[in-house]
Amino acid sequence: xxxxxxxxxxxxxxxxxxxxxxxxxxxTKVEIADRFQLILEIFARRATTTEAQMQIQLATLRNxxxxxxxxxxxxxxxxxxxxxxxxxxxxxxxRDAIKLQVQTILKKLATIRTKRILQxxxxxxxxxxxxxxxxxxxxGKSTLFNALTEAGVMIDKSLFTTLSTxxxxxxxxxxxxxxxxxxxxxxxxxxxLIDAFHSTLEETIYSDLIILVLDLKEPLELxxxxxxxxxxxxxxxxxxxxxxxxxxxxxxxxxLEETEQKFEALKDKLQNPxxxxxxxxxxxxVLKTQIVGLLENxxxxxxxxxLTEEVLPFLSWVHKKAxxxxxxxxCDCVExxxxxxxxxxxxxxxxxxxxxxxxTQSVSC
Length: 365
Ligand SMILES: Nc1nc2c(ncn2[C@@H]2O[C@H](COP(=O)(O)OP(=O)(O)O)[C@@H](O)[C@H]2O)c(=O)[nH]1
Ligand SMILES: [Mg+2]
Description:
Layout: H1 2-5, E1 9-11, H2 18-28, E2 31-33, H3 35-46, H4 50-75, H5 91-114, H6 120-126, E3 129-134, H7 141-149, E4 167-172, E5 175-181, H8 194-205, E6 209-215, H9 220-236, E7 244-249, H10 256-266, E8 273-275, H11 284-295, E9 299-306, H12 311-321, E10 323-329, E11 333-340, H13 342-354, E12 358-362
Helix pairs in contact: 3-4, 4-5, 4-8
Bound molecules: guanosine-5'-diphosphate and magnesium ion.
């Protein structure tokens, strides 16, 4: 097949042992990758935070460590793709070198974690609310992403150079927000890749609204199982306080009866469920209205507090919790305008009052 197709890489859907990889590379003369390596590559392409990049590097190195001894042995005098250049190493020296790198990364990760500020700054900086798509691969996230962004507004691209290609500005009902397509959950995710997966997902899932996409064509038990994993992961990322819409996709592939049956069975477990077809454009208007409705739950607040010692820690807390739109230091007070969900707005109000400040709020923004 390699000869016939002129392929320059073969990817196996299962995991390969070093010797298998070696023999396959020898027989085909092209690079061989397995499922693990492919997933790592996908994550690496999507990782934009330092933490995500390091987690991926860590997973790669740990995998390398597992195979190091055999790899060094096999690559003596070898010219196979993926096995070159290691022949000069003694196995132990090579392993020690990797171990050292692993230690360094672990140390760096620990430092990053202690001072991690969730990916809030980016959108605060841009001043847009953000929505992210979550769900297993092939549920239809990218199709929905395209359907929702198709009528997207034109915007000066230079403003958004920091955004990846999977985040776009969308606008409907006079509201504009950022929509992000995520890497998605992967079936049979190797255990050792879970941390790398979480950190890749975290940067995108941390938003104002999560749209969880499920494939309604799949058997009920499978949908339920996937839903469970999605929910657990969202909880694990401490994103469970973020409002969610659950999209039951691909209704065009089901009979009305089957759709109703499945909807009845699932609806109590879902937040804001909507039946749609991303591909056929069914019910997208309802979804858009729902998105805007949930985002508009945000309140716009404004306060003025006298400048005292306690104000600075309070302000940094506000920056963490809310999207600060404007902050102005006047000679004896500070004036702040922000957007946030109603619960946090209440917390801010009570703190402002304790600090003898003045608080005002409008219902939506
Ligand atoms: N019939 C049907 N197919 C869909 C629908 N949405 C997505 N698909 C198909 O499902 C497959 C996976 O979609 P994709 O958007 O790539 O899923 P992702 O992995 O979640 O991004 C593609 O072949 C899509 O054409 C839908 O509403 N109806
Ligand atoms: Mg996709």
